[in-house]
Design goal:
By secondary structure, the chain is of the alpha+beta class. Among the domains are: about 5-60 and about 80-285, no CATH class; about 505-540. Helix content is about 50%, strand content about 15%. The protein contains 18 helices and twelve strands. The chain has helices spanning about 5-20, 20-35, 65-80, 100-115, 125-140, 185-190, 200-205, 210, 280-285, 285-305, 315-320, 350-365, 375, 385-420, 430-435, 445-475, 485-495, 505-545; strands spanning about 85-90, 140-145, 155, 165, 175-185, 215-225, 240-245, 250-260, 265, 310, 340-345, 440-445. A hairpin with a 5-residue loop joins strand 4 (about 165) and strand 5 (about 175-185). Helix 10 runs antiparallel to helix 12 (about 350-365). It is flat and about 145 Å long.
Length: about 550
C-alpha cells in the first residue's frame, strides 16, 4: 500500500535537491581549499569520502583555512559575544515599558534565555561557532534548536549536506528537509517498533551484527501546516508540521508538530534569483586558487635556491664533485681562479613573496580579518582613536550583521522563547501584557547599537554642561527648566542597561520626593522657630499695653 503523504514529501524533497546542484560542486571546490574536513560531504547521496582519510591534497597554502575560524570569531564577537548580553526582549508596544511589572518580566525572560542558552548541556557556543564557519565558507548556516528531555534547550549545527530548504512568497524560509542516516538499532530507539519500515525490521531480526548496524536514510520535513487551527490542542493546533519519512520504503514513521520553526537559517549574501547564500570564501576563491599556485612556484624556486642546480663548462668537472660540508673539489676553478661551476639563477623570490602577500591581504579582507589589524597597524593610537577606527570598521560590516540578526538570530530567539514557555520555565505574563496580546520584539545590544543609543544621552550631557556654564555666568537657572528629567533619567538608565530591579518604581520615587518635601518643610519650620519666637516676644508688651 502506497503512503501518499510520504510520497508527496519525497517528491518535494527531490525537487529541493534539484535546485542546488551547482552550489554543491561550488561548495566542494571551496571545502578542499578552505575547510577540508567538510570535503566530500555535500552530495545528497551521502558522504563520498572514507572516514579518517586525508583531505588536504589540494590545499598548498593555509591562509584561507586559518582565516575562516577568525571570521567566525569576528561574527561571534560582534553578534553573539558570550561575555555580554547581546540582546534583550521588549514589548512591541514600548509604552508598556512604563509599567514596572512588565519591565521586570522581560528582564527575567532575557535572563532565562541566556541562562539556558549557555548552559553546558545546551552546547550553544560550539554549535554557534560551527554555524559561523559554515556561513563564512559556504554562505549558508543552519542551527537547529529543540528542548532537552530533562528540561532546557539543545542546539545542533546542521551540515549543509543534510539540509535543503524552500522559501515562501515573501522570501522567508518556511520549509526544510533534513536527510540523515540511522542504523536499524538507532531507528528503533528513535521511532519505536510500531511504525518501523519493513526493511528496518528485517535488519533488526538478523543476527548478523553488521546488518543491525546497516544505515537507512530518513527525511525530516518541517513545513507550514495547511490545516492549522489555533483553537485546536492536537497536531493541527501547531503552526508547523514535523514529519519523518523513510526513503527506502517510502513510508511515514513519525508525525509531530512545532509551534515555531526549529531551523534558524541565514545567508551571508544572496545573488538575484538564488536560494542559497554566497560567502566570503566564494568572493575570495580566485585569490585562494592563485595563492595556492603561487605557493607551488615559490616552493620550487625556494628548493632551487637552497639546493641549486649547478652549471659546469665540462662534464668531467662534476664527475668527482662533492656537495658534502667541508668537501674539497679539485678542478672547480681554473688557473686564473675563475669559477668553473655556477648555480642556476632562481628568479626574484622577493617579488614572488610580495605577490603572495597581496593575495593574502585580499583573502583576509574578505574574511574580515582586517578588523583585528587595527592595533597592529598603528600601535601608538590613543584609546579614542582605536574606538573611532573600530566604529568605522563596524559601520562597514553593519549590513552583514543586520542580515544575520534578521535571518538567524531573530528566528532563533523566537524559537527559544517558545520552547521555554512550553516547558513553563518562564513566569506567567503580567496581566497588562497578556491583555495587550503578549507581543514582543528582539532588541540587539551589540557594541555598535550601544554606541548609537548613547548619542542621545551624550547630547543631553553636553547640553547640560553648556547650560551649567550659562547659569554660572548669569546666575539664572531657568534654562535648566527645559530638561524633563523625569523622562530623561529612565531613558538614560535604559541606555546604560541598568536592571529594573535596581531602579525605584514611580510610586517609590513619588514617596521619596514627598518625604523629602515634608522633611524640608519641617526643617524650615525648625529654622524659623527662633525668629518667630522673637517676634512673638516683641509683640507681647504691645498687647499688654492695650
Amino acid at each position: 500500500m502506497t503512503d501518499t503523504s510520504a510520497e508527496a514529501i519525497i517528491r518535494r524533497f527531490d525537487h529541493a535537491v534539484s535546485l542546488r546542484g551547482n552550489f554543491e560542486s561550488h561548495w566542494e571546490e571551496i571545502a578542499r581549499r578552505v575547510l577540508p574536513s567538510w570535503s566530500g560531504s555535500f552530495n545528497s547521496g551521502g558522504m563520498t569520502r572514507t572516514q579518517g582519510d586525508k583531505r588536504t591534497e589540494e590545499m598548498v597554502d593555509a591562509t584561507a583555512a586559518l582565516a575562516l575560524p577568525k571570521f567566525a570569531s569576528v561574527m561571534d564577537s560582534y553578534l553573539t559575544p558570550r561575555n555580554s548580553r547581546w540582546h534583550r526582549c521588549v514589548p512591541t508596544d514600548r509604552a508598556l515599558l512604563k509599567n514596572r511589572n512588565v519591565r521586570l518580566w522581560f528582564e527575567e525572560l532575557t535572563d532565562q534565555l541566556f541562562a539556558y542558552r549557555y548552559a553546558p548541556k545546551a552546547n550553544f557556543s560550539a554549535q554557534n561557532f560551527e554555524c559561523w564557519q559554515s556561513l563564512g565558507a559556504f554562505g549558508t548556516g543552519v542551527l537547529f534548536a529543540d528542548k532537552l528531555r530533562e528540561g532546557g534547550l539543545r542546539y545542533k549545527a546542521i551540515h549543509l549536506g543534510e539540509i535543503h530548504f524552500l522559501e515562501n512568497h515573501q522570501g522567508l524560509i518556511d520549509t526544510a528537509f533534513r536527510r540523515f542516516p540511522l542504523t536499524a538499532r538507532q531507528a528503533r530507539q528513535w521511532f519505536g517498533d510500531e511504525r518501523l519500515p519493513e526493511k528496518v525490521k528485517k535488519a533488526l531480526e538478523d543476527t548478523n551484527p553488521s546488518t543491525m548496524d546497516k544505515q537507512f536514510w530518513f527525511v525530516h520535513c518541517v513545513k507550514p501546516r495547511e490545516d492549522y487551527d489555533e483553537d485546536r490542542r492536537d497536531l493541527k493546533g501547531m503552526r508547523y508540521a514535523s514529519e519523518y519519512v523513510n526513503i527506502e520504503d517510502r513510508v511515514m514513521v513519525r508525525e509531530e508538530g512545532y509551534n515555531s520553526f526549529p531551523y534558524a537559517i541565514s545567508r551571508y549574501v544572496q545573488a538575484p534569483g538564488e536560494l542559497y547564500g554566497r560567502s566570503p570564501a566564494m568572493l575570495a576563491l580566485p585569490a585562494i586558487k592563485t595563492l595556492n599556485e603561487q605557493k607551488k612556484t615559490v616552493l620550487k624556486q625556494g628548493h632551487r635556491a637552497v639546493d641549486p642546480v649547478l652549471l659546469a663548462h665540462d662534464d668531467g668537472v662534476l664527475d668527482t664533485f662533492s656537495l658534502r660540508p667541508g668537501a674539497v673539489n679539485a678542478g672547480g676553478v681554473n688557473a686564473e681562479g675563475k669559477l668553473l661551476v655556477h648555480a642556476l639563477p632562481v628568479g626574484n623570490l622577493a617579488l614572488a613573496r610580495e605577490m603572495m602577500d597581496a593575495e593574502r591581504f585580499t583573502i583576509n579582507d574578505a574574511f574580515l580579518i582586517t578588523l583585528f589589524q587595527i592595533l597592529i597597524d598603528t600601535p601608538t593610537m590613543t584609546a579614542t582613536e582605536v574606538l573611532e577606527r573600530t566604529r568605522e570598521k563596524g559601520v562597514l560590516i553593519s549590513p552583514t550583521m543586520g542580515r544575520q540578526q534578521d535571518e538567524r538570530l531573530g528566528p532563533q530567539v523566537e524559537r527559544e522563547v517558545d520552547l521555554l514557555m512550553q516547558q513553563k520555565l518562564v513566569s506567567p505574563m503580567p496581566l497588562l501584557l497578556r491583555e495587550a496580546g503578549g507581543q514582543f520584539q528582539i532588541e540587539y545590544d551589540s557594541p555598535l547599537s550601544r554606541a548609537q543609543k548613547s548619542e542621545n544621552a551624550a547630547g543631553l550631557f553636553r547640553t547640560v554642561d553648556w547650560m551649567a556654564g550659562v547659569v554660572n555666568i548669569t546666575q539664572d537657572p531657568s534654562g535648566l527648566d527645559w530638561v524633563n528629567w523625569d523622562e530623561a533619567v529612565p531613558d538614560i538608565m535604559d541606555i546604560q542597561a541598568v536592571p529594573t530591579r535596581w531602579q525605584n518604581s514611580l510610586e517609590q520615587v513619588l514617596a521619596i520626593r514627598e518625604g523629602r518635601n515634608k522633611a524640608r518643610a519641617e526643617q524650615q519650620m525648625v529654622d524659623a522657630a527662633p525668629a518667630m519666637a522673637s517676634v512673638a516676644k516683641q509683640m507681647m508688651p504691645a498687647a499688654n499695653a492695650k
